[in-house]
């Protein structure tokens, strides 16, 4: 057996072991996120996928001016920044991306970045800049990900913890962080849609 083949086999065995160490619910949630954003379904979350989501949101919500510009700038900045922080990440398969995310998840720096990222995403999806996301705004995000619109209300209501019919930035960010960190098998949080199963 060649050295290259042995190295490949060892790498694959190591990945299998690493994946077994990841809580199944977390793995399912992150796979759901990646599959939702992997618009062309090639197994790689890419800049092009993100820009397709942007285009879908803009068209679905009929955004113009600042609201349209905010969506474009948010996703451009996120995707290029993520690539700069993780060189070559968009060429890696979703399994490798998951392992890399899992290995850094408990970092305080990563936690703060996730909080800031989702705060900015909230501001971007608050199309009318009134400080709230209403269901009429939220549904465009859900549709852009290609998710079943009939399930959007369940997630919206999950995030709307005070049941006032609108989501605050705190509610949105709390739900996003819960999605990132909560490994409870009974969680009802479906931030990126119904969980994929393996």
Keywords:
mainly alpha; EF_hand_dom; single chain; two-stranded antiparallel ribbon; calcium ion binding
Describe the structure.
- The radius of gyration is 18 Å and the shape is globular.
- The protein has helices at residues 3-20, 24-37, 47-61, 65-85, 94-104, 108-125, 135-144, 152-159, 169-181; strands at residues 133-134, 166-167.
- α3 (47-61) runs antiparallel to α4.
- The model is unreliable at 7-12 (pLDDT under 50).
- A two-stranded antiparallel ribbon has the order 1-2.
- With 198 residues, it is mainly α.
- The two termini are 32 Å apart.
- It has one domain (23-181): EF-hand (Recoverin, domain 1), CATH 1.10.238.10.
- InterPro entries: EF-hand-dom_pair, EF_Hand_1_Ca_BS, EF_hand_dom.
Topology:
Layout: H1 3-20, H2 24-37, H3 47-61, H4 65-85, H5 94-104, H6 108-125, E1 133-134, H7 135-144, H8 152-159, E2 166-167, H9 169-181
Antiparallel strand pairs: 1-2
According to CATH, the fold-level topology is: Recoverin, domain 1
**CATH homologous superfamily name?**
EF-hand
Mean pLDDT: 87
- Can you count the helices? 9
The helix content, as a percent range, equals: 55-70%
* N-to-C span: 32 Å
Specify the overall morphology.
Answer: globular
Largest sheet: 2 strands, antiparallel
Category by helix and strand content? mainly alpha
Identify the CATH class: Mainly Alpha
Q: What's the number of domains? A: 1
Identify low-pLDDT runs.
7-12
Strand order of the largest sheet: 1-2
The second-level CATH architecture is Orthogonal Bundle
Number of extended strands = 2
Order of helices and strands: HHHHHHEHHEH
